[in-house]
Amino acid sequence: MYAVYRQVHPPSGLEFAIYCSFFSNAERNLVVAGTSQLQVYRLIHDAESTVKGDKPSEVKGRKEKLEQVASFSLFGNVMSIASVQLAGSKRDALLLSFKDAKLSVVEYDPGTHDLKTLSLHYFEEPELKDGFVQNVHIPLVRVDPDGRCAVMLIYGTQLVVLPFRRDTLSDEQDGVMGEGQKSSFLPSYIIDVRELDEKLLNVIDMQFLYGYYEPTLLILYEPNQTWPGRVAVRQDTCSIVAISLNIMQKVHPVIWSLTNLPFDCTQALAVPKPIGGVVIFAVNALLYLNQSVPPYGVSLNSLTNGTTSFPLRIQEGVRIMLDCAQAAFVSYDKMVISLKGGEIYVLTLITDGMRSVRAFHFDKAAASVLTTCMTTLEPGYLFLGSRLGNSLLLRYIEKLQEPPMDVGRDREKQDEPPNKKKRLDLSAGWIAGDVSLLDDMDEIEVYGNEAQSGTQLATYSFEVCDSILNVGPCVNASMGEPAFLSEEFQNNPEPDLEIVVCSGYGKNGALSVLQRSIRAQVVTTFELPGCHDMWTVIASAVKDEVNTKDQTGDGEKAEKDSKEVTPEEDGKKHGFLILSREDSTMILQTDQEIMELDASGFATQGPTIFAGNIGDNKYIVQVSPLGIRLLEGVNQLHFIPVDLGSPIMHCAVCDPYVVIMSGEGQVTMFVLKPDAYGGNIHRLTMQKPQIHMLSKVIALCAYRDISGMFTTESRASVAKEDNMRGSQSELETMITNISTTVDDEEEMLYGESGSAIFNPPKEEPSRTSVPMADKEPSQFKIDPTNWCMLVRENGVMEIYQLPDWRLVFLVKNFPVGQRVLVDSSSGQHVTQGEIKKEEFARLTEMPAVREVLLVGLGNRQTRPFLLVHVEQELLIYEAFSYDAQQSQNNLKVRFKKVPHSINFREKKLKQSKKEKKVESATGEEVIVAKARVARFRYFEDISGYSGVFICGPSPHWLFMTSRGALRLHPMTVDGPIESFAPFHNVNCPKGFLYFNKQGDLRISVLPTYLSYDAPWPVRKIPLRCTAHYVSYHVETKVYSVTTSVTEICNRIPKMTGEDKEFENVERDDRYIYPMLEKFSIQLMSPVSWEAIPNTRIEMEEWEHITCMKTVSLRSEQTVSGLKGYIAVGTCLTQGEEVTCRGRILILDVIEVVPEPGQPLTKNKFKVLYEKEQKGPVTALCNCNGYLVSAIGQKIFLWSLKDNDLTGMAFIDTQLYIHQMISVKNFIMAADIMKSFSILRYQEESKTLSLVSRDPKLLEVYSVEFMVDNSQLGFLVSDREKNLLVYMYQPEARESYGGTRLLRRADFNVGAHVNAFWRTPCRGIMDGSNKKNLAWENKHITWFATLDGGVGLLLPMQEKTYRRLLMLQNALITMIPHHAGLNPKAFRMLHCDRRALQNAVRNILDGELLNKFLYLSTMERSELAKKIGTTPDMILEDVLEIDRVTGHF
To answer: For the residues of 966-1025, what is the DSSP string, one character each?
Structure first.
């Protein structure tokens, strides 16, 4: 059985976070890692609000946001991360360690906007493993605070020291590493820690200490291990040792050691200078150790009594445990600690004059997310990364209580908060409307300060600024139908499905509803066949108001005075809809209702090429093939006939410029200028650009840049003038603007048409209030600049600066899709003639560019993106600043290709037919005009989002919010989309229009209950308790959810003879009682995602729900003879003495008359059966209408009759069956240790029998079937993060006559899989297509991981598999992979126990195959030639995988 693996939703949980200078020393970034993803964020202080157009009265305090500026995917899971600045480098390098013992040093490469690998270190030699086959040790990386060396602990015993070259070192000890320039690394060497001290084993943690002359490493270890059940005999087993590393001599003396620390020490944190030393976290105690002073320790609860004889003082008013706690220093004597329950404490180390710690002070500050990693950002900001909930950016403010002893220190501190406050107030202007659908109030609870002790220094208040969504860990998943689907789509052949996963844990527990594609909410539909393009334009305001506008000089202010409506909204309403047909244009006025205008200033006799607003939405431009019109409302101001020798084909507007292009590639420009005779009327005047016409222009776009990234000045010179910039730039603006024939009043009026969120005067305060040194350039007000991009027939792309058409950027061979577009305009003027000669040879193979769009997205439009439509392909590029070229007057940017898998390939056959038809009817011109329908439609505020809509055969939304991540969401529900326009109107606020292939015009809105700023559109429903199981009940369309909350347990069950009784436990008030989970079942309605009232069923105390499923059992109530019930298995665990029992519950979901005012109450649970069983019920499924249950070590088969279960058959099994699924009359039962078995139920003899099993040991996590036509595979996920496929093949010799299952495929996912589900391939419903026959009876097996990712396995035909396997092998060696990782090694079956069988593979890595789409045309042909096929064939195969798996 052959298959391909695909990751369709990236993992979203975070495990590591560090704050370092990733891009350059000028700014610091937050770098986070989770499984195989690495993301880089920047803290932005002036984030735009996502909910635009709020009334100024509702302004809340401005909030800082995290903007994602880079993201990398690795072929390996990050195990540990650290950063260091290497000698002579302008930025920090990252040290990443990977499983078993690999270390990669990577750095940002400014030339390619990517990661480059500086060095690789590999220590997986057998002699370092000491003969162990299994490796349970994580490779820990730590870096010396002064950046002299790094160490990595591997296999728990070997310490690798990686010294870095410092400039101060003398030249004698040159490592013979890098030839030519000196390497930043000296040769590494290995210390065996057992040689430092014969007992140095079981390392718990290690940290470099501050304030030592040489790098000094502290190791916390436990030589003789113990556990809580043995502390009576053996306690205080932990020790520390500090070693001083002399890198040159490679000697490492022990300089300090201490033994007999409490047995439950979990981690060490080095205390910064001037205090120094180390803080040791134990579960029940906190210790401070320093070489020169006696140790100081406190007990945090009464569990330390009798478990340790280490001298501990009692910490008053604190009763906590520090297991799973995360901590970070916010200043040299304060650290923030996040406990396992999410509580946040601020710990102050109180020191005496000798700088030794004499007391700890705890201040309970807040309660927040369950934290996995924590790091401090710039002062006042803290980042909590989480695997179990959303990661948060917190802002903390320090409030001083009373002057501490040390006055000098106090003054510093008091200075800090006022500055912070000042900065916040001045710029409090941005609404933090978060579409994350979780009200931020739930994410953090703030506590008041406690009783003030005499030594209290400060209390802290925390607030949430931003959160990063996480849908992991996905423990269980269920497919269901969305509650809302417009009736237009109700009868689609494909079922409409969404996925509901249980995510999070404890108070972060939630249900996440995932939908991969966007379903528009259709307001109404018109049938308008024959329209092939449309535009919506804003109608200017009423005539008499225009005067007031001009006098104020700021349109928006005047509007505010004259109208009560929210001004921005009103100014943005679309007044006209222009529909272009083959030979005419239809003008619709869109007010309360939509009606056609008969007489107006618009041209209606022929098609329209373009329509749009200009002059700050005051005027409308309409371009037809033979001329250009300027209108104000319906009145035509003037018409300019344009004769360029052929009709106009394309137009781009960039206020106040209009650039048009003719069919023969002539380009001309119009500028909107005030009338020479004064008055308010403007005119368009023509300016013919002076550009060479050696090769004709085939595509163009205009771009208005407000990001400041597009500049021809060198950044270095800008930095020097930064301080003068404030006053001077204003003058310059005025001067330059007058010179470009736009008066300054106009400049004020235009502001920035693209981003009407702020008027220039409003933004100035934030410039003055932000200190200049530490802010990125985007803080300053940027004067908008205008640029025009042309693409020529010979494959050259040029960018010109408007209005003077100065060439600033040039790329040759633009359509082939290089990974980085590099400017080569400097030597251009010389070689223009030569290009011409070599042209004709190349013209044949250069693909034609159909359309380009350069657009600013993201926070305040600071992220320019370039979209290119080349013949059969879409290219997306992101612009990034690059300033190392010699030439003075070129554009200081480069473009980096963005990977995506949007399919632009159309069926070629049909296209040519269509074109022929048109040609015969009406000659050449129409065809040209028709070919030019723009596929890229920029929109600014559709339900608060801006981005680009991509029309065509596979329509996609491209969003980018101020979060800064590019989101691509398909909209497949209505087939191919011809054209699109944003539409903001009374009846359709912030909506959009589009034409589908059938000629239906749909007026729609974007459903707002989903957040689109996520890899898949998602809705997260907080439950505030752990969700264990979710199951969809098809008949009533509701979900059944199993949840649990924890309660304090202070009773112990005891057996006295036959009956049990409970003994109450009384302990002192500092004792921490254990917690017990209390389970319940609840119905949820997908309409509002609320629990249906009065449907909760509580379990007994001590009773755990081990499984919950929807099962279809035999019933006389339905036609099919089967009915869906909710079956629940429970298990009553009460310690070792009480026999374990369980219950089976069978629940029916019935419809009742709803209670008044509560429409959801129409569904209720009806308990049909609940009886205690002879043992724990651990798994359930249905088979042939019977209920199958695993009880203890037996599997029983029951039939449900008259609300009672009667046994039909049973069979004995292995240790503990925890998963069961069935198909037809076969049952697959998974054991916790001993792999899985296949059972069969025979109806005639009423017997359950074992068909076959896997005899090897395997710790199974979950199971599912793989269906490939007539073949059935058994898919298993295991503890080692593998997926294995087994098959029943009795003919094969090694199956011993079918008694053993054979492994036929295996693959390492790199994440634990707990939830599987299956769907048929997409698109097989319409049987017309011959291609679909291949996919007819293949099922996709989907899975969700504990890291918050979603993946799939798709069975393949052998022919395709072989072809793509060759491609995969070629890609492994051809592309350089991030951090030097090998995809083949990563995807190889990982197994700790030595098995007598090699990996079978047979599963392709779709992540690697997708890299083929990222290659340029030349690289693709070269690769395809290598493996003896064509690029088209491979693209067809790779995109076909996408097509058939396009569900949800």
So the answer is: -EEEE--TT--EEEEEEE--SSSTTEEEEEETT-EEEEEE--TTSB-SSSS-EEEEE-SS
